[in-house]
Design brief:
Blueprint lengths: L4 E6 L5 H15 L4 E5 L5 H12 L4 H26 L2 E5 L2 H11 L4 H11 L7 E6 L2 H11 L10 H17 L4 E5 L4 H14 L1
Parallel strand pairs: 1-3, 1-4, 2-3, 4-5
Helix pairs in contact: 1-8, 2-3, 3-5, 4-5, 4-7
The structure holds thymidine-5'-phosphate.
Thymidine-5'-phosphate binds next to helix 4.
């Protein structure tokens, strides 16, 4: 594989969605290769149908975690691996770190179980770079309140989001080579300047 795989992560309301298109455009102009933008859960016709259920249908935490990995494997086989194989760069809005943060930290699924599923779903494969947009839970909540129409995760209590954030930060601390933590409370232009520096370096 010659393309690079970049993922964006963060709690709901961290500002990731504001910047994903900007990251794709940066990569497209700077890498000299193709750049595709995709997301999880989703990214394939099957994955997008499962996304609807995952975001709106109540289900057991284990079901949720297993479906996240099922969607991911389909996405890897149908979209991500072929694109990287062609030499394209792939910018993905959430990946396995989200499962560790939400189903692990948020829902309390033991991390060893998620690690086993991760090793089955994408053995030896990790993003080249993960941009973690970090904001305090209170800041994320204010942004969510503005857009309305909240999904199942966005409607969770502050305590859930605090555990998600802590799990993200722990995962980033365990792999500082791969993660860049972006302070999502900065003005958009400051975040963009930081993104330019990070992408240029890659
Ligand atoms: P989005 O709103 O950033 O598109 O993400 C959809 C929601 O799905 C978000 O609240 C986080 C959640 N999610 C998980 O709980 N586990 C996962 O593995 C992924 C990819 C997303």
């Amino acid at each position: 594989m010659t393309g690079k795989f970049i993922t964006l992560e963060g709690i709901d309301g961290a500002g990731k969605s504001t910047h994903v298109q900007y990251v794709r455009d940066l990569v497209a102009t700077r890498s000299g290769a193709g750049a595709i933008m995709t997301r999880e859960p989703g990214g394939t016709p099957l994955g997008e149908r499962l996304r609807e259920l995952l975001l709106h249908e109540p289900m057991a935490p284990a079901t949720e975690a297993l479906l996240m990995f099922a969607v991911r494997r389909e996405h890897l086989e149908a979209v991500i691996w072929p694109a990287l194989g062609r030499g394209d760069w792939v910018i993905c809005d959430r990946f396995t770190d989200a499962t560790v943060a939400y189903q692990g930290g948020g829902r309390g699924i033991p991390l060893a179980r998620l690690a086993a599923l991760e090793a089955w779903t994408h053995p030896g494969f990790q993003p080249d770079l993960t941009l973690l947009f970090d904001v305090p839970v209170e800041v994320g909540a204010v942004r969510l309140a503005r857009h309305g129409g909240l999904d199942k995760f966005e409607r969770e209590q502050a305590e859930f989001h605090r555990r998600v954030r802590a799990a993200y930060l722990a995962r980033a601390a365990a792999d500082p080579q791969r993660f860049r933590i972006i302070d999502g409370t900065q003005p958009v232009e400051a975040v963009r300047a930081e993104l330019r520096r990070v992408i240029e370096a890659l």
